[in-house]
Fold Zinc-ribbon domain-containing protein.
Amino acid sequence: MAPYQCPNCSRLLHFEARVCPSCAFTLGYDPAADAFLFLGDNATTWRDAQGEAHDVVVCANNNEYEICNWLVSTTDSTPFCRACRYNSTIPDLSGPQVPERWGKIEAAKRRLIQEIIALRLPCETMIEAAENGTFGLAFDFLYDPVGEESGNIQITTGHEAGLITLNVMEADDAKREAMRNRLGEPYRTLLGHFRHEIGHYYWARLVQNDPEQLAACRAVFGDDTMSYDEAREKHYGGAGGGWTTDYVSAYATMHPWEDFAETFAHLLHIKDALATIGGFGMRLMNWPGEDVQPSIDFDPYTADTLTLVNEWRPFAFAENAINRAMGQPDLYPFHISEAITAKLDFVNRLLMGARLS
């Protein structure tokens, strides 16, 4: 996402900011305005950079748990912000380190929801969907005490019928890194999980019940009627087909559903990373063999796929070079082939067709 400024002093902020590190004013993000507001007038009125008052209050999850920095309109029918209102179940906060982990989960989820808003995609809560007959989204964040103690995980992260479940152990950096190494994955993050699982949600919403889209999707990703359980057993049993450059990740080779969700996640990675780069006005000045040096002079959330991929490749290379200079692994440890570009293009066109007016 593009960087945000403190509405009082213009200091650049991280999206998780709650207090400006420069002027010390209390801050809150207003998704309706897509901007941070500051609490002025003796801490009673939220104002924007022009000094205009907004009729908003802090999210209920901030009042009760100090877990959210988003604001909600006083006229909304729910006390929860645009991100927190999707929660169906929050974790048992009496578990060790669970409150801290839940905070990390909510921070990652807010970035996901902000990007869904930027993409202008339909995304109703379960309550909203029941009222208007659409396909709703909800989240269950669950504590797994047995998995915590024994390592035998009882709660699997996944999606089913609009409900995304996440084991809060994923927010433990050491445990997530151990799992990444055990599964041989080059990349595993909370935000990556969310982008992957919401890819399943949009497949169910935009593809599954549309015969034309379903046929087109199968032509690109393969026949999804193949047994998922058998495919999963083969993949984790080592009898899968193996990773080729036709797939953006090894996990994508397991089943067409996972290929779609992994591709969906990578498209969101690329769009949001390019929006961030463009928001800072960054460009590459010494990229060889280019008459026009790479820069983000377009809206990544609406751009065509070739524009996205062509601009992303040099910036991804530069980001990886910077990480290596710091002794860190590649920030984007993936390769985008022509086959992957075609898959990204299918998802990108699907999302552009679903944009709300």
Notes: The longest helix spans residues 256-279.
